[in-house]
Q: What sequence folds into this?
């Protein structure tokens, strides 16, 4: 059952997908459903003995393309809607023990190509308004399968956080001679330099001035490209390279494979012109504030929406920058 | 960061000269009706020097 319910107090949709309660939870490695299917072995999600990169529809989707009208009718004040969308799983490798950080630049470049392809294909579906590409990594984030994979949610609406970001960028643009908010922020970060952690030819990784997590990092296209599909071949290579450098730094930071949420913010796939408003970038939110302490989204963050952070971005950027340099050398 | 940018530039140029990967895409339907797409890349097995 997939349905949406409107929260009129926050003016946002909440998705319900009750069948997800039954999804596979941390199976032992030998029963990983994302591994290739081996001869004589149990059938996994992938009916081949090996693969490069695979995308398939999630068996336990939060949204489905054929979601029926909800049984709960709702009201004018609190309407409901079918949970119509598409949820995909992206398998980065057939190696169960691989991580994105440990993969070659070339494989990450291939993955960038797949992400761009999915953005284009899913974005062309009539009911899809926003293609959200993300990865949850590590049990601290709540992953249920360790195999290296990400996900894509093709939403039937623009989700609240990107919508808020787009609204801010549009307001900034109208008040500042059509300038892009993200380009101006990036320019300021380059001028300052203290929060930069990796620079490529076309992409920059930085801890933002207003980071919500101690080791949050954003990877920005330096050109104002609205989406991953707008990147040139050279830009895609550089994105792969900068992602690998940042991820190497993350794993070096505390000496273990760092959990994180990785999300991509880019242009919605319907609703007009996003030139100079949407600016493709990747955001990372690692939950660790130290090697053995996590940043929880507790009362202030969850109930008030006000983040309290235990370290200044300049301090964490310096530490993370050194870890990136160490991992790259 | 400044000291690093020179090193970055040298290695970035070699990155930029790389060709875009040739991507092949095969779409199949699973027994339960869900789709699965196999992406394969010619560069995966032909190039050397990386850690796949």
A:
């Amino acid at each position: 059952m997939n349905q949406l319910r409107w929260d009129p107090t926050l003016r946002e949709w909440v998705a319900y997908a009750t069948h997800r309660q039954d999804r596979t939870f941390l199976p032992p490695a030998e029963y990983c459903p994302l591994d290739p299917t081996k001869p004589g072995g149990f059938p996994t999600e992938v009916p081949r003995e090996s693969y490069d990169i695979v995308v398939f529809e999630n068996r336990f989707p939060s949204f489905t393309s054929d979601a029926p009208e909800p049984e709960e009718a709702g009201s004018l004040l609190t309407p409901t809607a079918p949970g119509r969308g598409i949820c995909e799983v992206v398998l980065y490798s057939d190696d169960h023990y691989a991580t994105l950080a440990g993969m070659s630049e070339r494989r990450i470049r291939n993955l960038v190509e797949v992400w761009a392809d999915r953005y284009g294909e899913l974005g062309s579906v009539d009911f899809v308004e926003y293609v959200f590409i993300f990865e949850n990594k590590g049990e601290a984030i709540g992953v249920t399968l360790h195999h290296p994979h990400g996900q894509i949610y093709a939403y039937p609406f623009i989700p609240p956080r990107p919508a808020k970001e787009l609204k801010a960028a549009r307001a900034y643009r109208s008040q500042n001679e059509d300038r892009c908010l993200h380009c101006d922020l990036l320019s300021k970060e380059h001028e300052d330099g203290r929060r930069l952690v990796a620079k490529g030819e076309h992409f920059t990784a930085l801890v933002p001035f207003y980071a919500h997590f101690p080791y949050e990092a954003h990877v920005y296209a330096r050109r104002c490209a609205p989406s991953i599909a707008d990147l040139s071949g050279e830009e895609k290579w550089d994105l792969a390279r900068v992602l690998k450098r940042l991820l190497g730094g993350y794993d070096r930071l505390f000496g273990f494979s760092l959990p994180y949420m990785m999300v991509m913010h880019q242009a919605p796939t319907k609703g007009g012109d996003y030139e100079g408003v949407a600016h493709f970038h990747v955001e990372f939110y690692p939950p660790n504030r130290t090697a053995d302490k996590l940043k929880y989204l507790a009362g202030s963050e969850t109930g008030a929406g006000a983040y309290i952070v235990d370290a200044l971005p300049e301090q964490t950027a310096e530490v993370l920058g050194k870890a990136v340099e160490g991992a790259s050398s | 960061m400044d000291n690093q940018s020179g090193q970055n530039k040298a290695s970035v140029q070699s990155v930029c000269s790389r060709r875009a990967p040739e991507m092949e895409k095969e779409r199949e339907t699973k027994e339960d009706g869900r789709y699965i797409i196999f992406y394969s890349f010619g560069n995966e097995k032909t190039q050397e020097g990386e850690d796949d």
Notes: Chain A is about 25% helix and 20% strand. Chain A has a mean pLDDT of 95.
